[in-house]
Design brief:
Radius of gyration: 25 Å
Distance between the termini: 98 Å
CATH architecture of the largest domain: Alpha Horseshoe
Number of helices: 8
CATH topology of the largest domain: Serine Threonine Protein Phosphatase 5, Tetratricopeptide repeat
Number of domains: 2
CATH class of the largest domain: Mainly Alpha
Strand content: under 5%
Structural class: mainly alpha
CATH superfamily of the largest domain: Tetratricopeptide repeat domain
Order of helices and strands: HHHHHHHH
Length: about 150
């Protein structure tokens, strides 16, 4: 019988280890990826909710560098231009791959605030960062047309 008892205790021990391993992964099953949630909300035209999720993502370690871009755009879409500029400016130096997108959106914020010179500078930076980024050329042309330059 002691052999049977030893087998039972080994089985119980193995089950306990398996359960402990499962518990260690359990929080990951329910972890919220605030960055992805924020992007989905932004794409679903829910910028206010996106701001909340993306702001939580900024607080987390290991968030993608582009979180500042999405957060800036979300603030832009709800009309909080000062906050949009804050996050876009913070992110542009850390996310060099998307620098042109930060500058482009900064230009848009300035443009809507009738700060046309600042807008033109930002669009020029977008073009300098990525010479193939066509929307910046278009917006720069809009600026030129708006103030009567040729």
């Amino acid at each position: 019988m002691s052999n049977m008892k030893a087998h039972f205790y080994r089985l119980k021990f193995k089950k306990s280890i398996l359960f402990a391993v499962f518990l260690s992964f359990f929080p990951m099953l329910f972890a919220v990826d605030y960055f992805e949630e924020g992007k989905k909300l932004l794409y679903s035209d829910k910028p206010q909710e996106a701001v909340s999720a993306l702001f939580k993502s900024v607080q987390e370690q290991g968030s993608p560098k582009s979180v500042y871009l999405y957060l800036g755009v979300a603030y832009f879409r709800i009309g909080k231009y000062s906050d949009a500029l804050t996050y876009l400016s913070q992110g542009k130096d850390n996310d060099l791959l998307n620098g042109h997108l930060y500058y482009y959106n900064i230009g848009n914020v300035y443009f809507l605030q009738n700060q046309f010179e600042a807008s033109e500078l930002a669009y020029n930076e977008a073009i300098s960062s990525n010479g193939l980024y066509a929307p910046a050329f278009f917006e720069q042309g809009q600026y030129t047309h708006k103030i009567g330059k040729t």
